[in-house]
Amino acid sequence: MDIERFQEQLLRWFRQQKRDLPWRKDRDPYHIWVSEIMLQQTRVETVIPYYEKFMEQFPTLNDLAQAKEEEVLKAWEGLGYYSRARNLHQGVKEVQEKYSGKIPDEKEKILKIPGIGPYTAGAILSIAYGRKEPAVDGNVLRVFSRLLNSFEDISKIKTKKMIEEKVKELIPDHAASDFNQALMELGAMICTPKSPQCFFCPVMDFCEGRKEGNEDQLPVKAKKKGQKIVYRIGLILQKDDKVAFVKRPSDGLLADMWELPSLESENPLSNQEWQEKIKAEFGIELKLNQPWMTIEHTFSHLKWYLAIYKLDHLAQISKLSSQWYWFTLEEAEKLSFPKAYKQVMMKLIRS
Question: Which of 4, 8, 36, 56 is catalytic?
Fold first, then answer.
């Protein structure tokens, strides 16, 4: 491979065609860190308004470090994968305490910060500090699988390490930032998962996968396990002008977020079975008819079928759970809810 020509063609294309994204307006490592965490498993178009709002609320690393976790989760509400927000929050607090608010520019140190793995470290070090460090995300794995005509499984660690080494060999001495961003941009805009636009690719001549006609078969990636299905019932319990809410446990799925008093089952239940389950758990006798609202919500590994029932008074309740917290709807708007329950709250506030 003519490395200099590869670098030149890719960088020229990127500098002419790169998207105008808010986190590209400067090379502040804090901005890059936040954007990269938000972009994990989330589309750019979805991230932009969240990023801009997040930066308005937490314009500096110190602002985020000083914030309460509830405030951070509320700002993240709707983006999903909330462990990202918690790890980011924990990470900036550690940077504030250990490094006086300055994100380290050394790989060994930055990798010890909570929530920062090899990809995020490479992105911060190369984009913010100009270090010759690879930043290999899903886009870059796809690009290099095709460039190399590699049928190695990209979900395997050894394949990722092999591609990281290839990328590192190609990074120019004085353009690490643009080069890594160019590879990401190429995967996002041209070398897409389906129907790659090979004839618009600035490095088409270097692509062995295209030459062999394998671009649509690459990359190779092991199939994920099927999604687990969970059936849930949520109850809107009202007392005067307040509604009952429950805070989820501090670990596991959607940790520390708020929801309605809810029950779940791994198997579909009849209305009678749900009624018995509700009575046993909450001491509420009711007859289930049509739900007030139904929601299907998909996680990466899990799918919820959620039915919401609304009780306008508490005459039917024989006991009040000590785990319930009572808030007015105005107070509840300040709490952080999973996306599925956020839909419920929006309808409840409007009704």
Answer: 36
